[in-house]
Amino acid sequence: MAQKIDTSSNYGMKLIGLFARLLFTGSPHSLIDLSRMLNCSKQTVLRLIDDIERSYTGGLEIERIRTGRRVSYQIKRARKAIEPVPITVREMNLLLMCRAFAENLLGHDLFEEASKGLDKGMLLVPGRELPRGSAFGSFRPGTIDYSPHQEALSSLLEAMDKKRIVALSYKSPGSDRERSFLFKPYKIFSRNETLYVHGGLAPETGKPYREPDFDPLLAVHRIQKTHVTDEFFKVPPEYDFEKVFNRHFGLIKQKVFKVEAELTGYTAVYAAERIWSPDQKIRKTGEDSIRLTFTATSEPEVMSLILSFGREARLIKPKRLVKKLRAEMEKMKRLYES
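The chain above was modelled as a monomer; its predicted structure follows.
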């Protein structure tokens, strides 16, 4: 089921949370982003912004930054550095937890850099009881070691910060040769312990250019070489990461289709605990079985998902994918017949 808007949370807590995000993050947030962060309606966010402005009539200004049709908000920062604000033990514990969970994705060098930052932050924790980072861990078997890919990650972070185009070479799965092109990085994100960067292609001088049907999605560990150029780019004002990736199941973006599957046993419990698409529906069909319906954009990923559940999952729709799944299972069967 889609996540419900939290209407019971204390209004004052949302007010403090919004104020902290606008003041300390140092970057503008769109109305949609703030609504999602605070788990409330856009109308509530606007009321909160009005209340903050009314409360600080002497020296605080909330900037409204218009990019195309989208309006973003941030608190105008003073030129001089603000006084350090203490960090609570709970806040630092949450940061230490995030660091531990991200260890696999950061690689050695970036993990050490993040650790130094958190060590400095320890000075802002009042009292004698300091948090214990040893309370958190990270499960590594089956994950990618990002230590050899620090240069690519650092270049992408620099390019995103400065809004510079990156010249890179990329080796796709199953390809013997690298492909070189100019890339505009919009967003880095993780899925299943793997880092991806989503962005746009940039035209190269003297070479023909055709706008792709879909913006490139690159696995960071397959980037071979990077060079941050002196050419600038702008993120399209209509770009919406949530709309592109979090409305339907699947990294691969093809036409949207509806998936219906019958799940039993442990698989039914596992699937019911998760969100496969915001518009999903789960109907209990028996003591230990459910009928799961959701939307997807990637047939290969749906097939992999159903196959991973083994005999506890039966795909019902779409029929064309059921046919492909049967053919794939026949091939798998022949592998074990001998």
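The chain has ten helices and twelve strands.
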